[in-house]
Each structure stands twice: as C-alpha cells, then as structure tokens.
Amino acid sequence: MPRTPTPTRPRPRTLLIIGGAEDKMGRALVLRRFVRLAGGQKSRIVIIPTASSFVDEVVAAYTAVFTRLRAGADIQVVHAPSRAAAHDPELVARIGNATGVFFSGGSQLKLSQYYVGTPVGDAIHAAYQAGTVIAGTSAGASIMSRFMISLGDEGLTPRQRASQLTAGLGLLENVIIDQHFDQRGRYGRLMSLVANSPNLIGIGIDENTATEIHDERTMTVLGAGGVFVIDARAAVTDAPDARRGAPLLVSGAVVHSLPMGATFDLDAARLIDFVERHPDKDVGGASARERATPGGPGDALRPAST
Predict the structure, then answer these.
(1) Pairwise CA distance, residues 155 & 111, whole Å
(2) Residue 198's CATH number
(3) HSE on the CB side for 214, CA within 13 Å?
(4) Where is 166: in which H helix or E strand?
(5) 5 belongs to a structural domain
(6) Which site among 21, 22, 32, 214 is 20 to 30 Å from 62 CA-CA?
(7) Neighbours of 302 (CB within 10 A)
(8) Which domain holds residue 68?
(9) Is residue 220 part of a domain?
(10) Are the CB atoms for 123 and 95 separated by under 8 Å?
(11) pLDDT exceeds 80 at position 298
(12) How far apart are CA 52 and CA 59, in angstroms?
C-alpha cells in the first residue's frame, strides 16, 4: 500500500523583540539567536534601517555582525525614505524572499509613517504569517504592536496624558511594547498607558534583552536584563477623571518581572516556566517545576536551613 504522507507542520510565527543597545561585539547572544531563528548559514536576512538617521552606518554595522555570526551571505536592505518609496515592487520582493527581517533602532514615527499600511508593510505581515522571523531593536521593537508609544515622559510615577500612542505594524495584538525600559526609567509611562487602556498588556524590555514570542502567545526572555509585564485588567484607576500631568491612581495591577529563562503566556498573563540562567552560578538549569520538587535538581538552588 502507498504510504500516507506525513502532513507538514506549519512553521511557528516568531517575533524577536529587543529592548535596544544589544551586544554586537562580544557573544552577541540576542543577535546570535536571531541569526539562528532565521536559518543560520542558510538564512536570507533583510535589514530595515529606516528608523535611523545614519542609514549607511547602521547597515554596515549589522551586516558585519550578522556576517560574523555566520548568517547567510545573501543579506539585503529594504529602506523606504518616504511612504511613496514603500510601494516599490523590488522592496516588496526582497521581503518576500527573506527568512529573517530586522528593524534597526531610531525613530519609530518614521516606521509608522513610511511602512504601516503600505505594500512593504503588507509584505512584512505576509512574510510573518508564512514563518519569516521578524526582529526589531529599540524603535524596531515598538513598531511590532498594533499600538506603540511614540511620545512619553520618563520616570517611575504614572501620570495622566504624559504619553502618546501611534499605530504600529500590528504583528502583535493587545500589547504595548516599551524599550530601554530600566535604563531610561520608563515604568511610569507604560503603567499610565495600560491604566488608560486596561485591555492592553504592557511589556517593558531592558537593553541587551529580548523577548522571543511564538504565535503571539508564548514569550521567552533572553539577554542580560529583564522584561516587565504589566497587567491592569483588574486594576482600579482614576484615569477617566485625572487632570493632565496628575499622578495616576493605579491599584491592583499585576506586575511580572521576568529574567532570562522565563516563559510567559501572554493570553493568560501568567508564568509558564522558569529555568535559572545566571552566568555567575552553575545551577544546572533547573526549572521552576524541578526547584519545587524535594530532592530534585533544584535543591542545589535553595539556601541551607539556618
């Protein structure tokens, strides 16, 4: 009898969202992960440097680091310096041929103005749905969501109307992404935005840190810093009544601090698993489940009783 062919498993949709200032000179853990996800030596990477004011320098820098990390030799550039330029069929074709697309940092407003709702933007959506890995750092991180932070005051205290949302690419729904999170003190502005739009989950990503998100749901953290997730769906707030610039009441929001090794369910807003990954300690990579089992490998992580 003829053998029934095994159905091909669809490739997961993958986003790699980077908080900015990622290591390019050393181990380059985050960028190395992007190259691997894109296919390694068989990858076909497209760099989108449009957010930057120094396009040539950005292209040269990322081409060099991707080459050092043994990406495929076919590294292309898609740069639309205007909305009209994003209708170019050649740029659309380059996106369609890519296995990995990388947005540089700079001004996310440029990305919103030049790509959202254009043929190149549509090609990015189609490529993502087909399994092309989409990555972005700093401004390139913010553009991933349906709504992105385009302006906002920095600081720890959430204040009313201190930030502004603009349309992003919409590869990731129901979240707001902020970057350079710890380094630029952006806790307050992200909290204020989720207080005003409690259906949105806030994700704040530190520098040299990334979230790898599969099928818009499962998120893992890698890199040197942490990722904050703010869930204000059950919070009490005075956002409808507070005057502009006033400190906001936000009571009952749930905040998750996720270091490297954390796996998080964005739909359920809960931790799935945690594998300890501290470079200064050899802990054997015990998961949260293992650490909770007496006599398991995680016992090595517990301090001795005193």
Answers:
(1) 25
(2) 3.40.50.880
(3) 10
(4) strand 163-167
(5) no
(6) 214
(7) 9
(8) 14-274
(9) yes
(10) yes
(11) no
(12) 10
